[in-house]
Amino acid sequence: MKQFIHIAAFAAAIVFSGCEPVDLTDHGRAPESIGPVTVNRERIGTGQPFTATCVIPADGHNISSVEYLWGIRPAAEQVAADVTRTSPVEPTVESYDFRAPSAAGSYVISCTARYIFGAPDAGGALSADVTGEARIEVVPCDVLRSFWGDSMQETELNYPGLTAQGEDALVGMVYDPLQSGQPNIVTGFQFTDGRLARILQTEGADVSRGSGFYMHYLLLHHHITTWDSLMLACDSAVIAWTDGTEETPDMENDNKDREKQARIDAGFAAGEVTIRSVFHSDSYTLTLNVLKAGEQVVYDRIYTPRRAQMYIRCGDPHRSPHRSHMAVLLEILLSEYVLFPESLELFRCRFERP
Predict the structure, then answer these.
(1) Cβ(120)–Cβ(7) under 8 Å?
(2) I need a labelling partner for 349 at 20 to 30 A (CA). Which of 54, 117, 268, 283 fits?
(3) From CA 2, how far away is CA 7, in angstroms rounded?
(4) Pick from 178, 181, 202, 198: which is nearest to 189 by CA?
(5) Residue 216 parent element (H or E)
């Protein structure tokens, strides 16, 4: 009965609209299948953007319009078989931009075409859904949304909006994996022989705040070592004073020790203390440096491949054997002063081997 009402309403709408009547015996017909569905990346990492396409054949009949619905789901059930066809009419191609899930695993990409008929099909339906599918594998990235060795083009795809400078650096605002809400912070990508070799991120707090500098370090340290998405091991953490004394952060008690926090905060404001912590995962080393730079206390993160850790020291840039790479990135930040005024001191630190 419901289907009959739909057909009657369809016919009545034609009569009362003043349009020429439609031959209801000229049944609409959807293609038997659509596809294949393909993606534009051979390797898809967690969180990476990618584009899926689906071939839409032109062998339906009396189709008024087509709507498309894309989806991604865990591959818990069987995927439709790949489609091959020949047709005298050139097919069209639909596409959709996805971001890969944050969890690695097997997923199904689906494209559903909903065909709206100009007249009911042989069964009386006014529309039909046809779905094409493909299985993809999402693998863990090495660092952020990258793999070590990525090209500059791949990196620009992973982080839209980066600015290229020269042949070995990209810079822009990229999400911070160490903080809740993942705010965007200034980020530099270094390339060696065209391949990603190092990532640098920084944020800063104005010295005029007067407090909270050490607590923010403790929070970052806690996130790095305890968050499920990170869970890095801490290799070392040193609070170094300019008079040569050193101490170790007490992660169990320092968040409650107001006196120690105030003492270290005053040291940051005066430029008398720095903190250097080194962490590692299976694929990368993360060095977190906290120091006064200009009128800010900056929190610099340096990501390097697991077995290619570099060491950092602030000082005269002319003493660094790696000045050429860092000078390029400094020039980028200087050229992007309007966009990133808080970040000009980041690359005044030069990388040196001990």
Answers:
(1) yes
(2) 283
(3) 9
(4) 198
(5) helix 213-226
